[in-house]
């Protein structure tokens, strides 16, 4: 089974590309969804996070108070590393399990929608790495208009990620998403055609 890595900075439109690839018939393992699933009430990952960051990050109904965890975990680099040391291996293990399941079901190729693909070196494990690229100012505009972030928060989040140049350097395919949805769809169609030739 071919593994297709899909990544891009916050606000790049990576989720839209993932949706188009799913519509083209390729199942998607979404790392963000895996991360949410791993923090379901009663999960061992949630228990470990609560032990590290305080039992009160778990609400009375057993669910995670995400905003409070973010406030504590991203207050300094050491705390961020602590959270990553708990969550990243769990995300990787569950993602691998989902890929194995898709392979068992006969999928010829599957997409790994992973924001930190390059940062974690996971691009090395992919048969094809796609980077969705958008100018930082356009990403800020989209984050402010569609996600309701204020401009400074959007810029801070972008600055905490690796540079676009570092991401592009690891790409087999760069999708330029500065244009219209139609232009984006055309580029995704070209990627689908390339994947088809690899199978």
UniProtKB/TrEMBL annotation:
Task: Name the pathway it acts in.
Answer: Cofactor biosynthesis; coenzyme A biosynthesis; CoA from (R)-pantothenate: step 5/5
Superkingdom of origin organism: Bacteria
Q: Which GO terms describe its cellular component?
A: cytoplasm
Coarse class of the primary localization is: cytoplasm
The record, for CDD domains, names:
DPCK
Query: What is catalyzed by this enzyme?
Result: 3'-dephospho-CoA + ATP = ADP + CoA + H(+)
Record EC number: 2.7.1.24
What GO biological process term is on the record, naming one?
coenzyme A biosynthetic process
Q: What is this protein called?
A: Dephospho-CoA kinase
Location of the protein in the cell: Cytoplasm
Upper lineage ranks?
Bacteria, Bacillati, Actinomycetota, Actinomycetes, Mycobacteriales
One GO MF term, please? Answer: ATP binding
Q: Where does ATP bind?
A: 11-16
The coiled-coil regions, if any, are none
Q: Which organism is it from?
A: Corynebacterium lipophiloflavum (strain ATCC 700352 / DSM 44291 / CCUG 37336 / JCM 10383 / DMMZ 1944)
| Name of the top EC class for this enzyme | transferase
Alphabetically sorted, this entry's keywords are:
ATP-binding, Coenzyme A biosynthesis, Cytoplasm, Kinase, Nucleotide-binding, Transferase
Question: What does this protein's UniProt record list under function?
Answer: Catalyzes the phosphorylation of the 3'-hydroxyl group of dephosphocoenzyme A to form coenzyme A.
InterPro entries tied to this protein:
Depp_CoAkinase, P-loop_NTPase
- Name the Pfam families for this protein: CoaE
Q: Which family does it belong to?
A: Belongs to the CoaE family.
């Amino acid at each position: 089974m071919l593994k297709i890595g899909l990544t891009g900075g916050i606000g790049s439109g990576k989720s839209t590309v993932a949706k188009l690839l799913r519509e083209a018939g390729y199942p998607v393992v979404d790392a963000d969804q895996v991360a949410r699933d791993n923090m379901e009430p009663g999960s061992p990952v949630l228990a470990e996070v609560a032990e590290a960051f305080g039992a009160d990050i778990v609400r009375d109904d057993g669910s995670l108070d995400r905003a409070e965890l973010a406030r504590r975990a991203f207050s300094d680099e050491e705390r961020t590393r602590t959270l990553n040391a708990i969550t990243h291996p769990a995300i990787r293990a569950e993602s691998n399990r989902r890929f194995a399941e898709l392979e068992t079901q006969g999928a010829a190729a599957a997409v790994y929608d992973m924001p930190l693909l390059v940062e974690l070196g996971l691009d090395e494990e992919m048969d094809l790495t796609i980077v969705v690229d958008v100018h930082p100012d356009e990403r800020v505009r989209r984050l402010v208009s569609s996600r309701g972030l204020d401009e400074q928060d959007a810029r801070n989040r972008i600055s905490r990620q690796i540079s676009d140049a570092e991401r592009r350097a690891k790409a087999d395919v760069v999708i330029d998403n500065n244009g219209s949805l139609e232009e984006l769809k055309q580029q995704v169609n070209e990627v689908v055609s390339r994947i088809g030739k690899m199978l």
